[in-house]
Protein 1
Amino acid sequence: MADTAAQGDQSRFTRTVLRALREAAVIVTGVLALTLAAALITYDPRDPGFSFTGEGSAEIGNLIGRRGAWLADTLLFLFGFPAALFPVMLAASCWLMFRTRDEDEEPASRANTLVRAGGFVLLLASSCALATLHWPPGVLRQSAGGVIGGLVGDWMRANFNFVGATLLLLATTMVGIALA
């Protein structure tokens, strides 16, 4: 009888700890999503970052500061405008963790997590390529799809022409959304 009560207490303790860890992960992920979104939204091409040393001004235009300017510049250099998918992905994972806070639901399996991550990579690569094919770079130093979009988009255009590349990339984007 004492063993059953001890097992019940340990099980309740384990559930409480797991719940607290999940709640902490939701908070941290949510704050990271908001921070990354703020860094990307307040990107200023004059700020020092990965691809530019700055104009000598001591004032940083990015809301998150020097680290935010560097992070935004790096993500926009590599992925272009689709870098906005990163805070969206973090917010979606935050929502999924929050939604599965009940003890009755099983946690996501590793295979499920791997499929979702692969879907996100597919979505990101195809979005970068589409951005490169269809939009001007604007304030970005690379194409609208960044370095990744330049590589994938130029390869797709060279092999499938503009219309074929666009149709294949739209299909790939939809598959990436479905998997992610």
Protein 2
Amino acid sequence: MSLPMLPTALTLLRIILIPIILACLMLGGTQLLIIAFGLFVLAAITDFLDGYLARKMGVVTTLGRFLDPIADKLLIACLLPVFCLLGLLPGWWVVAPVIILFREILVSGLREFLGPYNVVIHVTQLAKWKTTLQLVACALLIIAPVLGGVWLLVAQSSMAVAALITAITGYEYMIQGFKHMRDMEKRNDQNGL
């Protein structure tokens, strides 16, 4: 593999790891949960490395820019329902994954709508922290059954904090999006459209 393809290969690895992680979680057992945790940590590391290497090596590609956010969302979105199914996020804890999924779909839809108008909503620093918090919370939920004790509550609380930050970033993006929509409406009104 050529070095310019390395960042994209890391992104693809993250996507390939998702069904393996899910299978380990669903099958359960201490060994498989530890494997799932290790693979998830590897996937999370690729999330940082692919973008870093692409920028450092000056090989930011269209394919990489397309796949990276999809890989991030797939990794989290595929795990959240499984956590609920396995009882790791029971009762009111299920609100956290609902908020996260709701925000991701809403913001993706907003970006898709604004794309043809050449409006780009840039990723904020808080949104980067949001992703990090989601990854940490997911890692904790994967390994909590192995660690036992208070770790499940720590993992659930981490997911709740991640959901709160996710909601805040979603709100910020929607405010930006609505501002662009209002500007488009004004231009249309001025042009008699």
